[in-house]
Please model this.
Amino acid sequence: MAGCSVGPDYKRPDALPAAAFKSAVPDDAGESSLGADWWTLFNDSQLTQLEETAIKNNQSIQAAMASVQQARAAAKGVKSAFYPALSFDPSVTRSHTSANTNPNPAFSSNGVTSTNYLLPFDLTYEVDIWGQVRRAVEASNAQVQATLAQYEVVRQTLEADLAQDYFTLHSYDAQYETLTATVATYQTQLDLTNTQFRAGLAGAADVASAEALLDSTQTQQIDIKRLRDEEEFAIAILLNQSPSNFSLTPNPLTLPPPSIPAGLPSDLLRRRPDVAVAERNLAAANAQIGVATSEYYPQLSLTGAAGFESIKSSNLLDWSSRIWSLGPSINWPLFEGGKLQAQVEEQKAAYDQLLAQYRSQVLSAYQDVENSLTDLHSRADEAKAQDAAVQASENYVRLTLLQYRQGLVDYLQVEDANRTLLANQLSAEQILNERLVSTVLLIKALGGGWDTSKLEPNQH
Model:
């Protein structure tokens, strides 16, 4: 009977199958070979240093690890039910009996005052006949694993957020550098226009237009500086540092995104920690059905006590002062007004809820990868088109300036060429950042180098 475990045995539920990612191209084929230090794929030593510092110091990481320790401690508490409980409860009691409690007056007395010394050891052990404790331990182990997977979710979110902030900050550096060079060019053009105005070769409107173009570009430059500062503050917080004491040297973003194989959709079930959280919570809920079901059956407890008792401290430890008792007890609920059935139904409903959440989480994982692949491929095409647009805009500016100096076009066309070039340059720098961010999001969507083998094994 001690080998019985009531309730359903857990089996990982089937998820909606997918043979391949719809957005994948031949270059995406192959097994994903991401490591936990996936950021090294970008070959940026500063990013590597920041990631390592964040993992060590970030407060969200510290809180998630504390949750893991809490779950482990709770599991140890549940496992303690496998063992008997032994307690020691010594006492000394001084008492006086009433002189007026005997109904026979012939035996009346003045009462008795006595001292009782007691040194008892109490033993209690509940035999786990129906597997209630085993199911509870199964649930607690699954909760530990779910908490470990949730820690990985927090860690990967931190790593991805830091990488995105880092690339965006250096994208602002590139845009700031472009704007700085453009401001210098516009200042030169303004000086040239002023010279032409004084020589009667340009009108006051040309000067005002050149000044407006320079001022608006300087405004963009100031705004980019503000956005960069905000990204730097965000990175400082992720590193658990005060923004006032943290700074990163400007470094315009130029590095190309690495190629990341997507692998197969079925791999996500073992690589995504958020999917593992949902699946382990489901396993815990399944075990709780067994715990609730075991309440239908009789519970056998073994109790015992042993020790010494005496009215004198001088002979308390004599062998003749020994006391002991031993006996089993059975608790079998016969009528609970539907309470036990309601508890089982509640646990089954909780399981059904978590099953739906698990399947939804699997679909979300597929969607994350599909979105990231689509973004990567589309933005790679955008980058090629944008590079061509920048080259065309540079030719446009060069030819327009040449025609302007020859008096073939007015200054408005020069301004239009300048605006077109600047817009295309800034757009190209933004697209590079978006490609890098999409690569980071793909890495996160693929599990960031994690898999379920890193979870603690069940301890039964």
